[in-house]
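Incident log, structure service

09:12 report received: a user says their structure output differs between two submissions of the same chain.
09:20 pulled the input from the user's history:
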Amino acid sequence: MSRILKGIPKFVVANLAVLVVIMMLPVFLVTDSVPLMDGIMDYLFNNESS
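09:34 re-ran on a clean worker, output below:
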């Protein structure tokens, strides 16, 4: 049960990250390094935070 509760914020952040990426598509066409997205991806895929 606690793993489910820990996964809910990551689920919400992942869905918001998709929306942010869609809105920022022109920025990603010019550069591949966006610190905001790097921080979000580190939070989502870092195994130590789950």
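09:41 both user submissions now match this output. Likely a transient worker issue. Closing.
09:42 reviewer note: The chain has a mean pLDDT of 84. The chain has one domain: 2-49.
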